Amino acid sequence: MEKIAGLLFFLAGIVILMGILTAEIFYGTTYSVSLNMISNLGSTPPPHSIVREPSAFIFDKSLLIAGILIMVGIYFIQKVSKNMFFTVSLAILGLGTFGVGIFPAFHAVIHPLVALIAFLGGGLASVSSARVTKSPFSFMAILLGITSLSFLGLGVLAPHVIVPIFGAGGTERWVMYPVLLWLTGFGGYLMNAAAPRSS
User: Fold this and answer.
1) How confident is the model at residue 193 (pLDDT cuts 50, 70, 90)?
2) Distance CA 198, CA 82 (A)
3) For residue 175, what are the domain limits?
4) Which of 15, 62, 86, 175 is the most exposed place for a label (fewest CB within 10 A)?
């Protein structure tokens, strides 16, 4: 069961990463990884929202697919892992990812909420996966999760400190990319038949 879950998590991470890269390619030269938020690939925020195709289609559908892959993966992982906090955090990541695909940035209220849910769930899932994995991966999971949560906290609570250094888009990538690295790594860990502990 863990190998199936691992494959699904690994695919989810790859789909998101390659979806973002491909959407950036087709967005055009006006897109900046430092200045533009990742979700701008699907739509810019209101009141004057801009949707660029095919970038928006690629980005939105990638997140929809990845969200589904994560949720299906949870079905298999919960059969071998009884750590409820980890499972719930992973579910929050999956639902948030799916939600971002459903509600692009022109949804002024819902989009920021589902994006925050995805980021928070991803960081917590990464950290809490240390309870269901063995070292050295468990240590890397904690490091990646703390990195993601730290940048999320700074971006929300002290944007005047972090955003001038990394840019809004750069800050967001320091929140999201550690989670993607963890998700693909966790998938590889499970596919290697390193069965998670039930603690």
Assistant:
1) low
2) 5
3) 2-191
4) 15
Count the alpha carbons within 13 Å of 24 in the hemisphere toward its beta carbon.
15
User: What is the token pair recorded at 14?
Assistant: 């790859």
| pLDDT tens digit sequence for 133-164 | 999 999 999 999 999 999 999 999 999 999 99
With a CB cutoff of 8 Å and minimum separation 6, the contacts of 99 are 67, 110, 113, 114, 117, 118
- The tally of domains found in the chain comes to 1
Q: Would you say residue 198 lies in a domain?
A: no
Cis ω on the peptide bond leading into residue 54 (within 30° of 0)? yes
Cβ–Cβ under 8 Å, residues 176 and 38: yes
CA angle 49/52/55 to nearest 5° reads 130
Would you say the pTM of this structure is higher than 0.90?
yes
Please give the backbone phi and psi of residue 193, each rounded to the nearest 5 degrees, phi first.
65, 25
User: Residue 197 falls within a domain, yes or no?
Assistant: no
> Which residue's structure tokens are 């290697």?
192
- Lookup: tokens for 20: 């973002």
| Gap between the terminal Cα atoms of the chain | 17
3-state class percentages of the chain: helix first, strand second, coil last, to nearest 5:
75, 0, 25
